[in-house]
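[audit] Reproducing an earlier prediction to check determinism. Same input, same settings, fresh worker. If the tokens differ from the archived copy the diff job will pick it up downstream; this log only records the rerun itself.
[audit] input (400 residues):
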Amino acid sequence: MMGNPWILRAAIVLFIIAVDRADTRLAALLVMTAALGSLAIFTFKGRYLPRFIMDVLDRLTDKAALERAFDAKQRQLSIIDADALSQRLKSRVIGQNGVADRVAVQIRRRIAAQRKDKPIAIFCFAGPPGVGKTHLAKVLAEELYGGRDHLLFFDMSQFGQPHAASSLFGQARGYVGSQSYGALTAALRDKPSAIVLLDEFEKAHPEVHKRFLTAWNDGFITEVSDGSHIATNEAIFILTTNAASRRIGEIAAEQGEDVEAIDRLAKSALSDAAFAPEVLSRIDEVFAFRELQGLDIARVVALEIEALAGQFGLEIEAGGIDIDILMHAIAAMSDRMNGGVRDVARAIERQISDGLIEARAQNARTVRLVKQGSAVAVVVAQKRDHPNAAPAAGEALPNK
């Protein structure tokens, strides 16, 4: 291996000697050409080019190190540990363990396949409201890309008219707004490696639905304003829907681990709910979310309470949520499934927000929640050591 370059160089020297004997001027021209080529290579690799000619990365950073780091990141995403990803998803999304397992396996397969002419995956999260569909998509973006800056969120209920597609895909020339890209095309142009979350997809107009077919079938979206193609083959599309929610919840409960049956029956239910067949045929898999039950409801509500307290710079004391509050939440879920856990969490928020504000004003650090008849009382459990001490990172300042 070490001798090969020298053999090549020796062959070049012998070739020039032979040419020199045949035609001295031609040999001189070859030598000058080789010298100029060597000088150009040396100048480029040594970064001796004028600043206005150099690649901006050569000029402003360590380009070689950046290229190595970028390649390493690309390779990291191409190999997913499905078991580890599933465990992380299940630790943050309550009550949907079966869905988390299947999503992790499918993500691993789709990323490994690296389809050039299609998105990495097109998933549909279907089921009742308030069971974690949107939350799972957000958590997945954090787990795959390290943060929600790679989550492109679109509320599809805003696109209920056929002309609303121009907001996503751009406006034709000659019309108002044609000077700027559509929201979706601009987002994918700037961040092609992302999760595109199409929330409440069923609420968009069918004509808007059909505009996604090229993105899912051919691996690009056409920006209407200038006709440019925006690649979608590095994106993961996730549709969430509440359509046929009761039936899909039943399918998830009845079919257990039968993945093929769940996908087939869920797509059939969505078809009955007026999803176009050409849209359903592009979806790689439908994940049926089951209704939250029993202690899963209590877990989600407890986490919502903890998050709400954190917004006021307070912590919940260990064991500080009265079990009667959570038992009431479980019972309430059976009476108001339309909004799921969100309705119950909002009801509790209305009862405790004022108490949390007062606790913060009293310089509380930790609080506990106690059920008092139909109301919920916030009790200060521990105050800060020094009334005028600055709160820890992430804590709100007390009212004065």
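[audit] rerun output stored. Observation attached for the diff report: The first helix runs from residue 4 to 22.
[audit] end
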